[in-house]
Protein 1
Amino acid sequence: MDAGGAAVTCKNELEKVNEENLEIVSSQLRQAMITGSGSQKVVGMDWSKRPGKPEISCDAANFENQTLLDSSSFVVVHGAGSFGHFQASKSGVHKGGLHKPLVRAGFVATRISVTTLNLEIVRVLAREGIPSVGMSPFSCGWSTSDRKMTSADLSLVTKAIDSGFVPVLHGDAVLDELQECTILSGDVIIRHLAAYLKPEYVVFLTDVLGVYDRPPSEPDAVLLREIAVNEDGSWSVVKPALQNMNKQVEITVAAHDTTGGMVTKISEAAMIAKLGIDVYIVKAATSHSLRALCGEVRGTIPDDWLGTIIRFVDKEIAST
């Protein structure tokens, strides 16, 4: 699951978590992980002291008959949203130049911000009884060259999954061989994880219903229900049938977004789809996101489901 930064933060308010969305998404992820007929009582795993709470709450007896969640089925990756983007754009971390004092300071500031968000997300997931562990690409040794991924050690991620944990990764500031440093987006991370782990499907959670043919704020914007990806990486809209199929889909990117926003999301989703893995882009904290997380939209798209499905189309098979 890829939780876009705009889906879990208030992107126009500096370093503010969208607590309501995050709690709903965490609850939905837990529902998608439930297996068997055991108790579904939520037993939290965040035993840290919280503001407004006089003491730490932990009752060991609650875990005696607790049903284990199917944590091996999920990996969570989240964007930065209102965390990190300001620090990165202010200092130019995404452009490189770690030898410059401002860039080096911005690298530190960016990582403080994005890891703060990561901890908040891990804590909310833990309060839902999800055994989540935060994992930073920088700390795991991930790096790039000319802003393209060159090193992504997934051994720690695999060990965490095999040990029954849900890894929670995030967009991060990383070292770059050519320009010294850059920003590695959550969307790029999820593509590399998908190529390695080969999941049944990938869910991108956003702050809009899906991909539109133009900025969704415009009155005539049309939600693209299904996008087909070809072997050469090109893609076309399958549903709905647009009047002008050659018309380029217009995408807007926030001025402070150093990772490419929806442009990067669609590009990475298309590369995931080329692997034969369906990608669902859907609005977070809705009934549609719950159905996507539970795998209920595989195969034929339900008429009452709102979102965008990106799929690989093998032309040789399609033509037979």
Protein 2
Amino acid sequence: MMTSCDVKHHRIKTNGIWMHVAEKGSGTGTGTGVVLLLHGFPETWFGWRHQMEFLARHGYHVLAPDLRGYGDTDAPLNPSSYTWFHIVADLLGLLDHFAVQQALVVGIDWGALAAWYFSLLRPDRVKGIIALDVPFQPRFTSIKPLDSFKQMFGDDFYICQFQEAGRAERAFARYDCLTVMKKLMLINQTDLLIAPPGMELIDYLGTPSLLPPWITEEELQVFADKYQESGFTGGFNYYRALDLNWELLAPWQGSKITVPAKVIMGDKDMGFESGGMREYIQGNTFKNLVPNHEIVILDAHHFIQQERPDQVSHEILSLLQKLS
């Protein structure tokens, strides 16, 4: 397992907050570029440990921050501080701190959305992107995201449950953080996350008695220790800013992603089949929004970069080589 001594850790000032950044590799070997790795919920930079080791070994300069609200990075309390304009500005400041003009941006889950919006708002700083789990999607003009989720999936859809300040925090607090990590990171259901009426999502999710081969108790504890320190509010605030982001992004209605893109999906991820995600990424709407893309579908659940580390690492390397 990669330990903290294997990477350099920085605490940098960017966009008015202090951000923790893990760094590995110098970029002076056979590779000729910088890779920015963006985690999702409920992860931290540590979710990219396998890719950091692989890419640094291949000569690339790898930067993996704890995003705003996570780990050792500042976590503003107000959800209005979690718009994509805040997140992209944080990442621009990170690149400026390390004197990086352009990077390949790789993200999973919320980190994938951060990668998409980084490339939408500042394509001049993005060499290309790789998005795991979450493809770029159109902004619907007729209905706000939360209203849409409630209409389609009901009030007990996990995103809806995460909206009320303090509700999910109180529910999560009934369990130790290691149990929460096991419940959230080891989900093997393929349907969307909808709790039964009157039940909190975290109570509904089971706790596996056996760990899958791709993660150890020690590695899960690394995540748990960070959430024990930081709490979960920062992560929930991304969900709580959905409608605000919808309002602010109106001027970019219909805008396309112009940088080269690769989408990596797990065929056993929640909603990939039942939620229509496979049809969407293979259809014309996505093709029109992201003209220059390729799609990779792996035999995996949600946390693809941890479950299939070698395959994901080689997919990143192949795009880097293609863009060099």
